[in-house]
Amino acid sequence: MARAQTADFRSIALPDPLPLDSGRELADVQIAYETYGELNERRDNAIMVFHALTGDQFVASTHPMTGKPGWWERMVGPGKPVDTDRFHVICANVLGSCMGSTGPGSANAGGDRYAMNFPVITIRDMVRAQMRLLDALGIETLHAVVGGSMGGMQALSCAANFPERTQRVLAIATTARHSAQNIAFHEVGRQAIMADPDWRGGDYYGGEAPTKGLSVARMAAHITYLSEAGLTEKFGRRLQAKDGKPGAKSFGFDADFQVESYLRHQGIAFTDRFDANSYLYITRAMDYFDLAEEHGGRLADAFADASDTRFCLVSFDTDWLYTTADMREVVHALNAVAAPVSFVELSAPYGHDSFLLDVPALDRVVRGFIQ
Questions:
Q1: How many other C-beta atoms lie within 10 A of the C-beta of residue 137?
Q2: Nearest-CA neighbor of 46 among 154, 151, 155, 144?
Q3: Contact yes or no for 181/195 (Cβ under 8 A)
Q4: What pLDDT sits at residue 256?
Q5: Between 20 and 30 A from 265 (CA), which of 67, 128, 173, 240?
Q6: Which of 213, 109, 115, 176 is nearest to 322 (CA)?
Q7: Which amino acids are annotated as binding site, given as ranges?
Q8: How far is Cα 183 from Cα 180, in angstroms, rounded to an integer?
């Protein structure tokens, strides 16, 4: 069955309609969020963590659907690099997602699901909604915004469009715009979803969800998050054990190779917690993201009002999705407006997913910049 929105997530209803880059307004917007640590009396110790495409607000707490630890629990918590003994950490589910914030699976004014009638959204729309959340929480200025991948896009967008709202920006493994290759990988995933007979033009709520298409989309995307060296080390060409006989080939289309089984597991597990229409909308928002285009075609102009904001940018040497060259382009734009910026390329074997995994050097960078 298509997964329904869970009603008991912590959320705030935005009091006014949210203007969107498309020119439309979205009324009755709910933003689901989690907080960690205490807000001090001066209300100046807040950090906003932006999540990536398949992430959510449960950055450092047990996920209510999967029972797994928060997606960045190793980074956020008492005594950790983002220290909740010192800072009040906020993480919100992005607009268009499916973990409590308003998205395609939400009910519209008529009580029906939006489905594909949900308006097209952008990364800037997501950030605009999160700034409205801060307003509702009574927080004017953030100590820092932090994000990796799509979360890094949001962090950069926040600095470009709401520079007065944050003192520091930590953007990890991200980019100022998608390449044609990035867009192509996303389109493969979207087409897999839309080719699933259960998608039914997006009107699958209340029936069978397009889990096969969503699973394939997740598999294709997951390949881009890994490095060739990491895949080779973890799986190589090793075969699955069959009937107690390791290395026996079936000479068919079962999952003979370990890497095949791994990808299939990733795809199937993903369908238990994510909505296919949300995947369509969020990947499209990422593809539309282009900070330079938003500011007259020159990336430096995007940061013209952020020269007093401190920046730290981090890339990984094995990340071929958002490369070090992509990050350097942002560094050069910040240099052009004399914004204080530090940049480091870290060595890690895990590819794009390195920001989520055990890379002690990243811990040191985050701790040093934040604290």
A1: 16
A2: 144
A3: no
A4: 83
A5: 173
A6: 176
A7: 218, 353
A8: 5
Strands (E), the chain: 11-13, 18-19, 25-26, 30-36, 46-50, 76-77, 82-83, 88-92, 144-148, 168-172, 241-242, 245-246, 310-316, 341-346
Answer whether 119's CB lies under 8 Å from 26's CB.
Answer: yes
From the list 263, 259, 242, 264, the residue with the least C-alpha distance to 251 is: 242
Q: Which residue ranges make up the annotated binding site for substrate?
A: 218, 353
- Are 61 and 36 within 8 A, CB to CB? yes
Instruction: Identify the H or E element spanning 219.
Output: helix 211-225
Two tokens at 112?
Answer: 């029906």
Confirm whether 321 is domain-assigned: yes
Give, to the nearest 10 degrees, the angle between helix 150-161 and helix 276-288.
50
What is residue 31's three-state secondary structure?
A: strand
* 238/309 same-domain check: no
pLDDT for res 186: 98
DSSP 80: S
Q: What is the pLDDT of residue 6?
A: 35
- 3-class DSSP state of 225: helix
293-302 LR contacts (CB < 8 Å, sep 24+) = 293/177, 294/124, 294/160, 294/161, 295/160, 299/176, 299/329, 299/330, 299/333, 300/332, 300/333, 300/334, 300/336, 300/337, 302/156, 302/160, 302/176, 302/333
> The domain containing residue 30 runs over which residues?
11-180+289-370
Residues 171 and 312 occupy one common structural domain: yes
Report residue 30 as tokens: 């709910």
Number of domains in the chain: 2
Coil, helix or strand at residue 158 = helix
Q: Which residues are catalytic?
A: 149, 319, 352
The rounded average pLDDT for each run of 10 residues, N- to C-terminus, in the chain (371 residues) is 45 97 97 97 97 97 93 97 98 97 96 97 98 97 98 98 97 98 98 98 97 98 94 90 62 77 94 97 98 96 95 98 98 97 97 97 98 88
22 and 140 fall within a common domain: yes
Residue 239: its pLDDT value, please?
Answer: 85
Q: Cα(78)–Cα(65) distance, rounded to whole angstroms?
A: 24
Distance, in Å, from the CA atom of 114 to the CA atom of 202, rounded to the nearest integer, reads 9
311 forms beta bridges with 169, 341
Same domain, 175 and 66: yes
- Which of 279, 175, 289 lies closest to 219 in space, CA to CA? 279
